[in-house]
Please model this.
Amino acid sequence: MAETKLAFIVQRPPYKSENPKLAITHAIAYQVVEILLEDGEMVTPTLCFVGDGVLACIKDQKALENYGIISTETHLKNALLVDLNVLVCKEDIERFGIPEDRILDAEDMGAEVKIQVVPFKEIQDSMESSNHVLFF
Model:
């Protein structure tokens, strides 16, 4: 079985930047690729938030009210609905003083997968084991 691993690394904040939304969109799009693959081939994406990128994972943001832009929250919830593996760097949320219970989930939409708060080492391992690493 041929597996292609993709790591999407979000480093920029969701404010005044499309980068987090683009990363989420690209990571979700792997499902479209599956229809073009041969039997036994698969694509496994992992969406990782590090540095200022972890700010995209805080629930109940009021981006439209405060910044005049649409939040990435719903977009990220859709990623969880399609069972995308989403990792958030534990050291970075601690650096910002964000408690883990402020990280969003999509239980209200029926998602069974949750965002995983993990040490940077696990994100680094994911990058090292990936065939392609894309930075946003």
